[in-house]
Amino acid sequence: xxGIEYEIHDNRYHNIELxxxxxxxxxxxxxxxxxxxxxxxxxxxxxxxxxxxxxxxxTFLARLVKKKVLINxxxxxxxxxxxxxxxxxxxDLMTKEFLRKICAKKHxxxxxxxxxxxxxxxxxxxxxxxCLKDKESIEEVKCDCLNNMQYCSC
Length: 154
What we know:
The protein is mainly alpha-helical. It has two domains: 8-83, Orthogonal Bundle (Arc Repressor Mutant, subunit A); 102-154, no CATH class. It is 49% helix and 12% strand. It contains six helices and five strands. The chain has helices at residues 22-34, 39-50, 54-66, 87-100, 107-117, 122-134, and strands spanning 8-9, 12-13, 37-38, 70-75, 78-83. β1 and β2 form a beta hairpin. The longest helix is centred in the middle third of the chain and has 14 residues, at 87-100. The chain starts with 7 loop residues before the first strand and ends in a 20-residue tail after the last helix. Belongs to the BlaI transcriptional regulatory family.
């Protein structure tokens, strides 16, 4: 699916696919941090690490506007870019996108790997423990590979 459909239910986006490239995500992280920014401000932050030219940054910004992840408005002679969704909403969407790309039987393996790779405070560890404790178990996770083809290796 190209772009974003704005279908909101309980203040959450559903059936939306962000499909952000790694570079677009880098630009978005700067904008989420700053709240809003011009191409020049974004470039100042990114040139330190990525050595991107201003025109490269503007190309990414144009793509993000086209995908409706950013909106822009002209202030004086510059465009100011603002996100259309919060970083938390984007993380939620990207997580759902990622899980749709792998077999449902592998989701728990992904979660275990993410836990292994993540640092936790006592509070965040308790939050994960409560979430897992409250999660209802099911008898069997059904494979969703290739229309449940018989030769799935899950």
